[in-house]
Amino acid sequence: MSFDFTDRGQKPVVENVEEWTLANDNYRTTVWTGKKMQMTLMSIQPGDDIGLEVHHGIDQFLRIEEGKGLCKMGDAEDNLTFVKKVSDDDAIFVPADMWHNVENIGDKPLKLYTLYAGPDHLPGTIHPTHQDAIDDPNED
């Protein structure tokens, strides 16, 4: 099955989100950017992670479609007191201003999608690898 991985934000879109997420092989693919919400698909390689981060004023929802991970959250980057293993079909809710990271602890890519309320990446952002995301001057 072939999917359109372009950012189709502010247009109506219907996709099978599970198949869409599993088909994505990029570290991050931004597929929909609206005025108050954004959706990205992620494929995190074994041993890699989404990167310790905090979104000021932005709540985040993550859904694991495939793989095994370790979710960590806390009120400071050196105080991640909430730690839970996650796997297929788990949902993660990250409150605004909460430090968080999800690490791939499995032996295959961790496939997930995430919703930001409001958008966190520039429309159309694609990072084939985690390093590309780190090197992107538009990312904070």
TrEMBL record:
InterPro entries: Cupin_2 (IPR013096), Flavonoid_dioxygenase-like (IPR052538), RmlC-like_jellyroll (IPR014710), RmlC_Cupin_sf (IPR011051)
Domain (Cupin type-2) ranges: 41-115
Domain of life: Bacteria
Any Pfam family hit: Cupin_2
Signal peptide bounds: none
Name used for this protein in its record: Cupin type-2 domain-containing protein
Organism: Vagococcus luciliae
Lineage: Bacteria, Bacillati, Bacillota, Bacilli, Lactobacillales
